[in-house]
Amino acid sequence: MDSSTSVVLPDLTAAESAAAARSVGKAGSIGFRIGSNGRGITYSVVGESVRVDEDLDGADTIVALSDVAWADFVAQMRTFINLFLAGELAFERGTFNQLSAWDPALRLLHAGISIYDPSTADFQGRDPQAVLSLACDDAELRAQLDTMGYLHLRGVFSVEEMTAADAEIDRLASLAAPGDEASWWARDETDNDVLCRLVYASMRSDVLAALENDPRIVRLGRLIEPAAMSAPDRMEGAAVLLKAPGETKGLSNIPWHQDCGMGGHAMMCPALSIGIQITGSSAATGNLRMIPGSHGQTMHYQWESRLGDVPVVEIDTAPGDVTVHIQDVMHASPKPTGAGGRRTMYVTFYPPRLWDHVGPGEAFNDLVRNRTAQVADMHQHL
Ligand SMILES: [Fe+2]
Fold it and tell me: What is the Å distance from ligand 1's center to 57 Cα?
């Protein structure tokens, strides 16, 4: 491999090569025209492996992008969806669909990230629906987290503590307004603005800051990385989700995603998101759903139409429960089937290297927050 392409391909096992080749399906070969001098690289499936050529001869799909965009893509700093939404990919031949089909194989080739396969998932005899508590020692919590990619803990906070936090969220919600850089809004069925997220919430609330810094939360946030820290002033800080009922336009209901799906995997995974369940949750109020054991791997965009027999766990919670999830576990927060109204405060603990890359106001969500309608609309066209 020519160093000018900035790709160092790992030595894949035969099984990994076969998985990469299989994951591409019938998408054909894909080439990238990189930078102003137009150098090319093409990936093709040959038998049970992927071949890499340093030209664009015979590429069924050709994607042109800058040197910087290519470097970010290969380094797992920006995803293909991020680059696509930013208008930094030009399809000279083929479409987004071919690139989407190739993405898991490319992440395996570029970064050694394996491709999720439900048939090889190993839960080590553990229960994906297990409900634990802070009485468990760290080794037990870590073992469950390492296996599933998430935890559900019962009764971390008292009902009284959650009632006080709920009242504080009411106060912040009453002060929120569209465009205030501190909240997300969707449109409800009558086309009115409806508040769906408060961000940087602990920056303007001593009550919520105390929750964020509570030793119970810090303990959980540091289960994987002892030096991990919460980031009240960046990456949207402490974010309070307020699930609106009914059909909404915008990003109140979140489809299946990995939290690094827009980029930043290399600098933030395996960050841990701690979900403090202010109200509790169920399908009726809009609960959290997980694919157990999917963390640390890639899944196709639109995996639902490609994979069968994928286990899905719904996490129903009571006020004071806490969820913990690794940012790259596949998860969703679908439309409430009933009254809606789940309130959850998410505090995310990041590895220290995040602070080298992201300053206040520089996260991808900071850029899209006031363009949620446009972003949701773009998602529908992907
Ligand atoms: Fe998420």
Answer: 40
Residue scoring higher pLDDT (305 or 127): 127
Q: Exposure of 190 by Cβ count < 10 A (0-12 exposed, 13-18 middle, 19+ buried)? A: exposed
Domain boundary among 111, 146, 161: 111
- Residue 375 pLDDT grade (very low, low, confident, very high; cuts 50, 70, 90): low
Q: Please, which residues have CB less than 5 A from ligand 1, an ion?
A: 259
This model's pTM is above 0.70:
yes
Tell me, in angstroms, the distance from the centre of ligand 1 to residue 288's CA.
Answer: 9
How many A from CA of 258 to the centre of ligand 1?
6
Interval between CA 39 and ligand 1 midpoint (Å): 36
Whether residue 209 sits in one domain with residue 95: no
Count structural domains, the chain.
Answer: 2
Please tell me the distance from the alpha carbon of residue 155 to that of residue 140, in angstroms, as a whole number: 17
Nearest to 323 by CA among 294, 359, 348: 348
CATH number reported for the structural domain that contains residue 80 in this entry? 3.30.1050.10
Domain final residue, candidates 111, 145, 168: 111
Q: What is the pLDDT of residues 74-104, one digit of tens each?
A: 999 999 988 998 899 999 999 999 999 999 9
Domain that holds residue 105: 3-111
Residue 63 Cα to ligand 1 middle (Å) = 29
pLDDT digits (tens, 9 = 90+) for 189-247: 899 999 999 999 999 999 999 999 999 999 999 999 999 999 999 999 999 999 988 88
